[in-house]
Amino acid sequence: PNPQSPIPICIMILNLNIFYLKNKLNRHNFPNFKNNKNKMKRNLNIIFIALLIISFEFSHEKWEDVISNSLTDYKTFEKYWVYLYPWGSDHNGSARMYGSSTDHNHVYLENNQIVLRASRINWDEGKSTANPHPEIHYHSGAIHSKETFTVNNQYPNYEIKGEFKAPYGSGTWPAFWLNGAWTWPPEIDILEFKGSNVNWFNTFRTASDVDTYKCGVGDGWHQFRIWMTKVNDNDVDIHFYIDDVWKAKHTGNFVGKPFHLIMNLQMEGSAGGNPPSEDTLYMGRNIYVGRSNEQ
Prior knowledge:
Elements: H1 7-28, H2 33-58, E1 62-67, H3 74-80, E2 81-83, E3 95-97, E4 107-110, E5 113-120, E6 138-140, E7 142-145, E8 157-165, E9 172-180, E10 187-192, E11 198-204, E12 210-216, E13 222-230, E14 236-242, E15 245-252, E16 259-267, E17 280-293
Parallel strand pairs: 3-6
Antiparallel strand pairs: 1-17, 2-7, 4-5, 5-6, 5-17, 7-16, 8-13, 8-17, 9-10, 9-16, 10-11, 11-12, 13-14, 14-15
Helix pairs in contact: 1-2
């Protein structure tokens, strides 16, 4: 699904009606051309009024870009993105996130791409402060959106996408996902590799109420995309795509619940053991968030 205005369709119908009526008059060569000309004008007026009504109905709706072209330079990047997770540096794997406007060892821009780099450490840095508190074996990178995104009456449709070259070796755990801004769940995983080239599309309504769709992904760059749309006062449909091919639909009671968008390179944890000793890179480009605005 994609947002489409009915206005161009109505204009096309109007033009077709004009063409039809003119040809009808010319073909039959009516003797009382003046009366038929008046009839044609009345028909065109009716169509024109209908077009105006439809135009008015949809004039309050517009599509707006929320995140676009954000990876060109650090000044632009920092308008849209914040370093680390929304809650800090630690999560459920063995990598501790580092990054700031003055520290680009693990989060850096290159050729309009964002690069996250995980590096093995050889000293004791203790355990993660987050459950299940694994020992820290890596320094890595994470970013999250400065703005939160909420499906509601004003913004009933969202498109979120990006192109990624993600690692999938044993012990690597890259992700591109939506997490509840103030609580967990909700969670929507757009890209998640857990030590293999299988992507996990996950939607967490509660910790135990989860929809999952898994599919294999080849080497190189691929686009991962979701389309979220409000279907009633409580529920949101989430459509998942890889390289513009529809893969699955999940539904969650997410209306009115704000999300942060996160890109991170975690290690070990759900991705298993035998992690790499060399640096691991996770790259993204053309990251985009757009939405319909109905006010």
